[in-house]
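In the current project phase, our protein records have gained a C-alpha cell line. A sample record follows, to show the layout:
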Amino acid sequence: MPKKQSIITLITDFGVQDGYAGVMKGVIANINPSANVIDISHNIEPQNVFQAAYVLNSSYPYFPKGTIHVVVVDPGVGSDRKILCLKTRDYLFLAPDNGVLSFIAANEESPSIREVTNSELFLPEVSNTFHGRDIFAPVAAHLSKGIGRKDLGERIDKMNEIDLPKPIRSPGGELTAEIIYVDGFGNLITNVNKDVVDRMKIKTERVAITMGRKRINGICKSYTDVGANEALAIFGSSGYLEISINRGSARDVLNLEKGDKLILGN
C-alpha cells in the first residue's frame, strides 16, 4: 500500500546554525518518507511566542487543505505544559499550549482541541529539552499517515491564549492602534486591518496617522507613492495596516517598536 502523502509545515525558534530543524525532518522522514515538509520559518526570536503566533497566522491559509502546521516555540519544554492538536475545517495544528495558537482560535470557527498524550506515537526516549524531535515530529508524521485524532488523546475545551491587542475607538472617532509585529524589513505592522477601516468609514486617502511627533497623511497603494526614504502607511500582504519607509526600515528611521501606539483620525 502506498503511504499517504501530506504536507507538514514547521515554525520554530531553532535557527539554522544547529541541526535541530534538520533532525525533526529526519524523524518525520523515518516515519513517513512521502510527507512533504515545508519550512515556514526557523528564525523566530528565541521563546517569542507572540511572533510565532503572528507568523503562523500570516502563513497557514496559503497551504492546501489538510496541511499539518507544526509550531515548536516552546519555553515550557519539559514542564507540565500540554501539547495540543487543534483542528479547524481545513487544517491541523500541533503546538505547545502556550498561546501560540491564539490567532487561530480567534479567527477560525469552532476549532476542536485534543491534548496529545499517547506516548506510543513519540520516540522511544523523550528528552526534557527537545520535544520537537521526540514528540512533535513523530506525532506530525503519524498524522500525515492518516492516524485518527482520537488516537492522540482526550478532547479538551480550553487552551492558554495570549493577549491579542485590539484597536480602540475614542468617543471623538479617533482610533488608537498598536504595533504588533516588526518584520525583517523593519516594517511596523499594526493591529488594524481593512475591515476595521471600512467599518469606521475612514477615508483612506485622507486619514491622518500620528506616531508621536511624526504624522502620515493617507494610506498608500504602493511604496513608490512616496519618495525614497519617506514614510508611508500601506495595507501589507497580511491584510494589516503597516508603517513603512520606501527603501528603508521604519523601525530604525521612526524609532518605533512592537507595543508602540498610533492614532488614526480623519
Summary: The chain has a mean pLDDT of 93. The CA atoms of residues 83 and 117 lie 8 Å apart. The radius of gyration is 21 Å. The chain has two domains: 7-156, 168-265.
